[in-house]
Amino acid sequence: MTLDRRNFIKLLGGASGLALTGQAVAQAKSAAVSAGSAAEIMPKGSARRVVVIGGGYGGTIAAKYVRMLDKSIEVVLIERNKEFVSCPFSNFYIAGLMPDMQALTIKYDKLASNHGIKMLHAEVTAIDPAAKMVATSQGRLAYDRLIVSPGIDFMTDGIEGYDAQTPEIFPHAWKAGPQSALLRKQLQAMKDGGTVAISMPLMPFRCPPGPYERACLIASYLKKHKPKSKLILLDANPDVVSKKPLFVKAWKDYYKDNFQYISGQATKVDNKTRTLVIDNFDDYKVEVINLIPPQRAGNIAVASDLTDDKKRWCPVDAVSLESTRHKDIHVLGDATLLPSDGPAMPKSGYSANSQAKFCAINVVALMNGKPTAALSAINACYSGVSETESVSVSHVFKLVGGKIKVTATAVSPVDFSLGKIEKAYGESWLKNVLTEMST
Amino acid sequence: MHSFACAGCHGTNGGSAGLLMPSLAGQSKVAIVGAMKKFQSGERASTIMGRLAKGYTDADFEAMGEFFSKQKLHATNQKLDKALVKKGAALQEANCSRCHLDDGKDGKDDTPLIANQWLPYLQVQMDMYLSGTRKMSEQKAEKIKPLSKTDLDALLHFYASVK
Question: Does one domain contain both B94 and B145?
């Protein structure tokens, strides 16, 4: 144990400790880049400017709606990638139910040209709230208001042995793209008879029903293509945290012969022997490990002091999503911590979409000296439980006394009587939400 | 501004790109308010819509109706069987036009605008009417009963084609 711990620390200090300490990496990069490209780019003219960081479910919508609401405000959207791959529905791809990631992928060109958004494909390395500047791999640029939609990064310090190579061996596939492709490839390459494990973290994390949907769809894949294989879901939570009656029904009715649910937390991983240790006790030596580590706000939010004392999520005002830590900076999507009266908004794509809109409305109001408005938000989320059936959960949120409050929530009927039509509605949802983000 | 949140499923400003989701852009206010109240009470069957409707007030529905009725009708671009469109065009006058006014671009009372909606959306709704999941008015039932399945599908093709 002591030796392992020492090796662990050694790795941390080494050049390969990259994935371990996102914050340290971001800070190191920030120092390197601000020294290398301190030159100001896109100098601000007379127009007021909103800079948006992150071109995902939240950032694209915030950028678009600011422009839709006030054409006199210049908007720059900074995103490191040329394409965005949706996490929602990527479990269908992983389980071989989509030929490729085309239906999950959007580009930014039409969004930019339709709304006059200036795209900047660069890595954000630092935010300077006092000077109101954002440092990027391309240079620095000024903002009047900044909207940060950074998504999540991983906290792997609690998993002994987790290093930069681990996600290449035990993919998390919790950011869609190459990681999803890797997990799918591993499942397909596995011999019939092999065991698969999904290890999921304690709440809160991105997409609460996601790991359970993944369990259903991978179990469905195994049942059909590798009938001698088994799947174990290792849940760090004491019990199922989302759509419980629906997932439990699917496991019982469809996957009882090849699926097992176990409550337990991943505490150690061994890349070489392909072993996962749960609660410092049980060893699981399995062929494919989908290790989803605990999560926090994206690196840039942590490095820029937008997170709370625990350095995990970003506290914001519930009306405008303005950071309570730094003025003129708004944070939305998975990274936020909204004050809530009752259950929090789930960290979902739809939540980010909804938040981006009331953030945009209030950013524009604040820039125009108008009063902010307490708005409502929706979350709707579909999960596949088999090849042909999906189930859903939905919420309406309103702002009551400065806090987010659920005014209605429900899940699909437990008999799956709507399963087939909800599968089709889910596909229409994906088409609409991705079209909204990309046009 | 409640209406911005609807766009995740119904498209920006209610212009739907998803084949099973109706466009709300340009829909009449009275139809939207009427539909939302029926979703809320459960009188109109749904999956998610009725569950969400419970989170809003009548005043919210009015605001939604106001917003969407002012948006420009969303033009869908869909491949349709021309023969069926033609057949539907011949049938609509005698069978549907008393309520679905102006080729479905207008509606009597709270009859929704159905012109240019996605064909799969219209087909799912018709299946729900025929199975009894969605209730029909007496006048509608009277018109629909004598029509064959092909006639009905032709009518849906016609309305989907109207720009």
Answer: yes
Per the structure, the count of domains in chain B is 2
Residue A2, pLDDT > 50, answer no
pLDDT in tens, A363-372: 999 999 999 9
Closest alpha carbon to A204 in A110, A301, A337:
A337
Q: Return all residues near A210 (Cβ < 8 A) that are at least 6 apart.
A: A87, A91, A174, A383
Determine contact, residues A303/A27, Cβ cutoff 8 Å. yes
Same domain, B125 and B59: no
Range of the domain at B121: 82-161
- Whether B65 and B106 share a structural domain: no
Contact call for residues A287 and A181 (beta carbons, < 8 A): no
Q: Which residues of chain A approach chain B closer than 8 Å at the C-beta? A: 64-65, 350, 353-354, 357-358, 361, 373, 375-378, 380, 392, 394-398, 406-410, 412, 418, 421-422, 424-425, 427-433, 435-436, 439
Distance of alpha carbon B20 from alpha carbon B47, whole angstroms: 12
Q: What integer pLDDT is reported at residue A38 of this predicted model?
A: 79
pLDDT tens digits for A183-218? 999 999 999 999 999 999 999 999 999 999 999 999
Report pLDDT for A110: 98
Backbone angles phi, psi at A316, to 5 degrees: -140, 160
Which residues in chain B touch residue A428, judged by CB atoms under 8 angstroms apart? Answer: 9, 16, 18-21
In the numeric block, the tokens 């490191």 are attached to A80
**Phi/psi of residue A137, each to 5°?**
-65, -15
- Rounded to the nearest 5°, which phi and psi values hold at B78? -130, 145
Q: How far apart are CA A352 and CA A149, in angstroms?
A: 8
Please check whether residue B111 lies inside any domain of the structure: yes
